[in-house]
């Protein structure tokens, strides 16, 4: 009992003498940024422009969004600078999306990422995306449907991820790829519509090391997602076997259960890589000229595989020759299989010329309710 | 009302003891006189100015009457019993042989032949006689006998057995204890028809001389526990025992702990169930609330109804109560901590709504929470004092109007009202009213800790409570049993409730002597075999 | 043979011993094990962890043999009887010092951790003081309070280990390959930082004195260590499998990042949730180490129980100032390594020497006497 009284007295005394609240912040005093944009400052390549967008808290205010923008040598310097323009405490803890401007991405993004990993209050599902043009412009557009552009963008990315049109990359993922020398990162690529009132999830921005090199758009993006084993389900439209030389007939399938098996072989000094993509497909649209027969399905599969292989070769060529980027982690594959050989070569220099043999095996399992 | 002196120091109360006893029987000797008149005048001085004490002289027999007198307290003694069972047979239908009436009359003959009262004692000690009279018995004196006959004529106006006011059940007996300890023991005895059910009587309180009964199962209860309880009861040295709470406060292990170390109940079925688990019940005259010792934390959220309903629902209800317990103690503190320190834990959409609702509220979250919780406590306290019908109306109007107006006036945010309502209701999820006090008042230190250190403050305060609970013992039984110390076989009647046929053994925690509760029930086992 | 310093009623069950051991071992180790070990042995960190765990188990036999020879006695009671007054007291002092250092260092890590994740602006001193008061409060309750609190915390916190499972679905086997590539020397070296995560079992010096069934001490403690070995190994595999070894070099508390990398429906910031509950476990590590030190100290100085209880206040001051020595988390990591080396001597060599000497000199109850 005595012990208890002493304990209680001590706790009380403590809470009174140490009266803390050092970290107390009232919710209504917060500038809760929902999205953050990063650009290289105009004319000064070592400066960064940071844009924050946050919903206005006062209901019935004239503007639904408060957009702040500032420049600094580091992101936090810019944010500190912004504090002068805001009557609320700026917090990046609620940021849902980090938009990187095209130019900033080209200059290299690794220097921007550190603060987002070091700061423990950053959300785990804060996505990173590359914007065509400037991030500041993207965050400044007026959407017709939704006042909160950052939330809209997040939703856009998430929904497109379901059909594997864009990858979904969080800051920590991106940082991991960035410090891992064996593979290069990719990010979703977003652009503003022409009327400046909407956004389009275009495809994939490919990086070599931390520098933005180019895009894989539309089918290229989807195929890339399949190759990197990230796609769960994709919709693909291809030229049906019924196409003739002067009349293209298109079919659409939904492919799921996708797996890409990457193997490397070393024949003497010659390195080659085999990729075999497998999957099950559902036919979801097929121009009917006559009922499908059993052999038609086989031919349809062949047409699909042919087109897929073409697309994949296209993507590989772009990655190897044009962007010199290795987001598929082929390097890791070689490193694991032939560690001695890997030590003897400079991967960067031989990568563009490695033979990549691509094959595909797609089974059409379901054809829907009509034949 | 006598002044209650709660002093634990032995020497002081000793002094008080000698003072009071000397004051009470100052005028005379401790034993009776031979002459009737002397005896009557002795008691007349003792009961001077006591208008409720009736002295009645009469004569036994018709021809050679024998002077006698009875003394009883009007209201405590059953008047019909006095008239018809004591006086009438003695005065009219005396069966004493007239021939030897005067010479060799014996008190035994009177007892055996002429009094139709069930319970008769003989006593010569004046103090005992006084106590008996004040308890409602009738004392009878006969000329030339230095002894008094104590005739049990107790019977006073009494509240009948009614439904308990606090621990209501939907399914189960609706009987509750009354203010008379005899009725209460009868209610228990009716449930356990076993001579092993013992009811030891005590008298506690120097002036109130309250009847206290400790009930236990002789072959189940742990002897050391029983001895410990008796020892503690015997050390109580106080003027008055008006309620079982007096006893609870004198004998509990840690008086400054916010957690009750004895169960209180108005339900005889609950007492009976606990007796059969090897616990000891303490019944006090003058109150319908019985004490059950030892208590554990798990019992705070158990109700007899758990056993009356089927096992899966009993379990489900217990889990809900545990959740309610957690919400009622910690929800406001988490709200304060999350709002002021860790707003990043709130989902994006919600944080906007919360921030907007707090726009214009002048107080920080902690003040808002303390204000509303304080108002709720005031309302609650006031409505229990208000007369029944008005109470409900005022309660509803008070909460609704104040809640609405406070939000409209931007004194508090609507979210806070939700939190406060949940905690206010959640505190009553425990089936036992006394334990709601612990739950209601634990959350204030938690809220303050949260206001200073966020969730770390909550963690620290929780740890403090857990360590305190781990060190707490009730009559030598660890309070957190059977979780700490862990007893797997007891868990089946703690957080979950197993079917009755699966609980073959009594809980081990009040270490009882007779572990087996039942054999494997034939019905249950045959059912299990013929499931296909 | 009854120790006057220990209350006769204070006996604990084997299950309570298990709870004390588990609470003493689980703590800050989990948060950083993947980082510290993989720094040395790369993707083979899990082998180092496994190795470290299984090195310990034979030493548990020494503890159990000592407690069978001296039932009801702690290290301080028997060390002087076995190896003489001077050496024995040196052993006692080094044990007390080790426990104080563990308590101080873990306290510091906990304060840093809370300061980083929850209360960035709150002075670390106030966190230290509050925790120390709680620690004193618990240790004053004696072994029964310590044991029961351990049990409650075990039931309260261990369910949250489930949170480690969902992110594990994203393990990439390639991150763990190639196996044994980092070399045997590095793997063995890596087991030294891994040992840090297992310290806490030296509480057996104290706790086994309260066990009446001394024969089963080995079985219980070995089971406890084995569970932890498996658990830690799985955690290391999962973290490296999901995040790769490269990023671990850059981030502190990778376990939190690992949980952070998964998005849970309805729950925001599960990492904070986990961190909140894990604080309880860390606290218990400190509390048990502190209790061991305080009890040994009061026995060493032969204090009456009345004063023995208050030795905690003295120790708390020492712990407080030791905890403030390291400047930052990098220095803390260095001290952690020192502790690991010191632990090899205190927690492993000392019981070995004591047990062997006692067996040779036939001190205490012989094994065959009991039979």
Oligomer: heterotrimer
Briefly note the structural class of the backbone of chain B: alpha+beta
Determine the N-to-C terminus distance of chain B: 69 Å
* Nearest-integer average pLDDT of chain B: 82
* Name of the CATH superfamily of chain C: Amino acid/polyamine transporter I
- Biggest β-sheet of chain B, characterized? 5 strands, antiparallel
**Helicity range of the residues of chain B?**
40-55%
**Largest sheet composition of chain C:** none
Number of strands of chain C: 0
* Uncertain ranges of chain B: 1-28, 524-532
Give the count of structural domains of chain C: 1
Ranges of chain C with pLDDT <50 over ≥5 residues?
1-6
The count of domains of chain B is: 3
The strands making up the biggest β-sheet of chain B line up spatially as 1-2-4-5-3
Find the structural class of chain C using helix and strand composition.
Answer: mainly alpha
Question: CATH class of chain C, please?
Answer: Mainly Alpha
Largest protein interface, residues of each chain: B-C, 28 and 37 residues
The average pLDDT score of chain C comes to 87
Q: How is the CATH topology of chain C named?
A: Amino acid/polyamine transporter I
Q: What's the layout of helices and strands?
A:
The complex is a heterotrimer of chains A (371), B (532) and C (371).
Chain A: H1 2-17, E1 30-32, E2 35-40, E3 48-55, E4 65-72, H2 75-83, E5 89-91, E6 97-101, H3 102-107, H4 110-118, E7 127-131, H5 135-140, H6 149-162, H7 171-179, E8 186-192, E9 199-208, E10 211-217, H8 219-227, E11 233-239, E12 250-267, E13 270-286, H9 294-323, H10 330-337, H11 339-344, H12 347-350, E14 355-366
Parallel strand pairs in A: 1-5, 2-6, 6-7, 7-8, 13-14
Antiparallel strand pairs in A: 2-3, 3-4, 8-9, 9-10, 11-12, 12-13
Helix pairs in contact in A: 4-7, 8-9
Chain B: H1 10-24, H2 36-46, E1 53-60, E2 66-73, H3 79-91, H4 107-114, E3 120-123, H5 126-134, E4 138-142, E5 148-151, H6 181-191, E6 197-204, E7 210-217, H7 223-235, H8 244-251, E8 263-265, H9 268-275, E9 280-284, E10 290-293, H10 305-308, H11 311-340, H12 348-358, H13 365-385, H14 388-408, H15 414-426, H16 433-471, E11 473-474, E12 477-478, H17 488-491, H18 522-529
Antiparallel strand pairs in B: 1-2, 2-4, 3-5, 4-5, 6-7, 7-9, 8-10, 9-10, 11-12
Helix pairs in contact in B: 6-9, 11-15, 11-16, 13-14, 13-15, 13-16
Chain C: H1 14-25, H2 28-41, H3 45-69, H4 75-83, H5 85-117, H6 124-140, H7 142-157, H8 184-198, H9 204-207, H10 217-243, H11 245-248, H12 254-260, H13 270-300, H14 305-323, H15 329-361, H16 367-370
């Amino acid at each position: 009992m005595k012990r208890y009284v002493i304990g209680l007295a001590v706790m009380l005394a403590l809470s009174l003498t140490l009266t803390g609240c050092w970290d107390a912040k009232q919710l209504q005093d917060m500038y809760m940024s929902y999205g953050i944009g990063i650009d290289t400052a105009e004319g000064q390549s070592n400066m960064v422009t940071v844009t924050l967008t946050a919903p206005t808290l006062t209901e019935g205010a004239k503007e639904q969004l408060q957009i702040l923008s500032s420049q600094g040598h580091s992101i936090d310097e810019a944010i500190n600078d912004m504090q002068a323009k805001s009557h609320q405490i700026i917090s990046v803890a609620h940021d849902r999306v980090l938009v990187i401007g095209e130019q900033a991405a080209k200059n290299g993004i690794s220097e921007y990422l550190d603060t987002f990993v070091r700061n423990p209050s950053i959300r785990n599902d804060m996505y990173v995306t590359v914007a065509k043009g400037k991030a500041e412009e993207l965050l400044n557009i007026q959407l017709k449907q939704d006042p909160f552009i950052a939330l809209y963008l997040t939703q856009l990315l998430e929904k497109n991820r379901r059909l594997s049109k864009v990858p979904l990359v969080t800051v920590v993922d991106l940082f991991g790829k960035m410090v891992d020398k064996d593979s290069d990162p990719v990010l979703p690529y977003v652009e503003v519509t022409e009327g400046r009132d909407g956004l389009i999830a275009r495809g994939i921005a490919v990086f070599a090391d931390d520098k933005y090199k180019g895009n894989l758009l539309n089918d290229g993006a989807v195929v890339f997602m399949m190759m990197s084993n990230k796609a769960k389900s994709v919709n693909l439209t291809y030229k049906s076997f019924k196409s003739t030389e002067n009349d293209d007939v298109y079919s659409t399938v939904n492919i799921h259960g996708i797996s890409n098996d990457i193997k490397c072989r070393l024949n003497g000094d010659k390195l080659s890589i085999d990729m075999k993509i497998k999957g099950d497909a559902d036919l979801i649209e097929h121009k009917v000229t006559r009922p499908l027969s059993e052999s038609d399905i086989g031919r349809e599969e062949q047409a699909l595989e042919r087109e897929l292989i073409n697309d994949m070769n296209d993507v590989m060529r772009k990655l190897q020759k044009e962007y010199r980027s290795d987001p598929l982690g082929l390097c890791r594959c070689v490193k694991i299989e032939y560690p001695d050989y890997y030590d003897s070569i400079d991967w960067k220099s031989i990568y563009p010329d490695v033979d990549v043999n691509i094959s595909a095996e797609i089974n059409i399992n379901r054809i829907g309710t009509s034949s | 009302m006598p002044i209650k002196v709660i002093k634990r120091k032995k020497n002081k109360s000793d002094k008080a003891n000698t003072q009071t006893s000397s004051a009470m029987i100052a005028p005379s000797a401790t034993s009776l006189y031979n002459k009737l008149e002397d005896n009557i005048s002795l008691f007349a001085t003792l009961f001077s100015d006591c208008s409720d004490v009736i002295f009645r002289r009469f004569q036994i027999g018709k021809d050679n009457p024998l002077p006698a007198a009875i003394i009883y307290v009007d209201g405590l003694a059953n008047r019909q019993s006095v008239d018809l069972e004591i006086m009438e047979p003695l005065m009219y239908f005396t069966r004493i042989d007239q021939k030897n009436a005067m010479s060799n009359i014996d008190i035994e003959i009177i007892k055996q032949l002429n009094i139709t009262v069930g319970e008769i004692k003989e006593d010569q000690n004046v103090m005992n006689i006084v106590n008996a009279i004040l308890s409602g018995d009738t004392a009878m004196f006969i000329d030339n006998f230095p002894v008094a006959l104590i005739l049990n004529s107790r019977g006073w106006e009494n509240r009948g057995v009614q439904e308990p006011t606090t621990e209501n059940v939907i399914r189960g007996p609706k009987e509750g204890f009354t203010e008379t300890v005899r009725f209460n023991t009868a209610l228990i005895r009716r449930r356990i028809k076993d001579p092993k059910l013992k009811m030891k009587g005590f008298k506690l309180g120097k002036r109130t001389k309250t009847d206290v009964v400790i009930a236990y199962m002789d072959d189940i209860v742990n002897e050391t526990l029983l001895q410990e309880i008796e020892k503690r009861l015997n050390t109580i040295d106080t003027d008055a025992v008006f309620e079982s709470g007096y006893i609870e406060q004198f004998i509990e292990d840690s008086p400054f702990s916010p957690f009750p170390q004895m169960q209180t109940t108005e339900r005889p079925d609950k007492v009976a169930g606990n007796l059969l688990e090897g616990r000891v019940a303490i019944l006090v005259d003058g109150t319908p609330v019985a004490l059950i010792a030892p208590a554990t934390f798990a019992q705070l959220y158990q109700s007899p109804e758990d056993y009356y309903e089927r096992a899966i629902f009993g379990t489900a209800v217990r889990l809900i109560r545990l959740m309610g317990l957690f919400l009622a103690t910690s929800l406001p503190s988490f709200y304060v901590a999350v709002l002021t320190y860790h707003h990043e834990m709130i989902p994006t959409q919600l944080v906007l709504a919360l921030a907007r609702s707090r726009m214009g509220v002048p107080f920080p979250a902690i003040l808002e929470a303390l204000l509303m919780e304080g108002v709720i406590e005031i309302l609650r306290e006031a409505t229990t004092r208000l007369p029944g019908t008005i109470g409900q109306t005022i309660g509803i109007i008070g909460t609704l109007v104040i809640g609405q107006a406070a939000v409209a006036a931007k004194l508090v945010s609507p979210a806070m009202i939700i939190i406060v309502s949940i905690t206010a209701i959640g505190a009553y999820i425990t089936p036992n009213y006394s334990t709601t006090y612990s739950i209601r008042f634990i959350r204030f230190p938690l809220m303050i800790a949260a206001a200073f250190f966020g969730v770390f403050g909550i963690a620290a305060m929780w740890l403090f409570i857990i360590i305190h609970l781990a060190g707490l013992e009730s009559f030598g039984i660890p309070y957190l049993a059977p979780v700490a110390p862990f007893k797997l076989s007891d868990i089946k009647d703690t957080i979950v409730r197993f079917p009755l046929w699966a609980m073959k053994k009594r809980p081990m925690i009040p270490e009882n002597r007779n572990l087996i509760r039942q054999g494997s029930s034939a019905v249950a086992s045959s059912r299990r075999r013929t499931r296909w | 043979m009854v120790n006057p310093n220990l209350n006769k009623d204070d006996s604990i069950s084997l299950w309570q011993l298990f709870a004390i051991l588990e609470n003493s071992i689980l703590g800050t180790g989990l948060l950083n094990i993947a980082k510290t070990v993989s720094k040395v042995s790369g993707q083979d960190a899990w082998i180092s962890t496994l190795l470290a765990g299984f090195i310990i188990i034979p030493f548990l036999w020494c503890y159990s043999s000592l407690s069978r020879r001296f039932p009801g006695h702690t290290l301080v009671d028997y060390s002087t009887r076995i190896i003489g007054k001077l050496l024995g007291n040196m052993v006692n002092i080094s044990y007390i010092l080790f426990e104080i250092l563990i308590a101080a260092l873990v306290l510091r890590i906990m304060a840093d951790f809370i300061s980083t994740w929850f209360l960035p602006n709150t002075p670390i001193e106030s966190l230290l003081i509050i925790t120390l008061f709680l620690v004193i409060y618990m240790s004053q309750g004696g072994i029964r309070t310590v044991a029961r609190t351990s049990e409650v915390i075990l039931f309260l916190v261990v369910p949250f280990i489930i949170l480690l499972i969902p992110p594990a679905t994203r393990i990439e086997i390639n991150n763990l390959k190639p196996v044994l590539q980092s070399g045997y020397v590095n793997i063995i070296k890596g087991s030294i930082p891994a040992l840090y995560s297992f310290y806490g079992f030296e509480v057996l010096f104290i706790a086994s004195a309260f066990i009446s069934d001394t024969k089963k001490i080995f079985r219980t403690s070995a089971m406890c260590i084995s569970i932890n070995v498996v658990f830690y190994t799985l955690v290391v595999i999962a973290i490296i499998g999901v995040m790769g070894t490269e990023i671990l070099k850059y981030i502190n508390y990778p376990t939190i990042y690992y949980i952070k990398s998964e998005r849970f429906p309805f729950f925001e910031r599960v990492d904070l949730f986990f961190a909140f509950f894990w604080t309880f476990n860390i606290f218990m590590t400190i509390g048990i180490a502190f209790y061991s030190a305080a009890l040994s100290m009061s026995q060493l100085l032969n204090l009456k129980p009345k004063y023995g209880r208050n030795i905690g206040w003295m120790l708390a001051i020492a712990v407080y100032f030791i905890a403030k020595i390291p400047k930052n988390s990098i220095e803390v990591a260095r001290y952690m390594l020192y502790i690991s080396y010191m632990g090899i001597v205190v927690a492993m060599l000392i019981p070995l020497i004591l047990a062997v000497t006692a067996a040779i000199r036939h001190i205490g109850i012989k094994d065959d006497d009991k039979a």
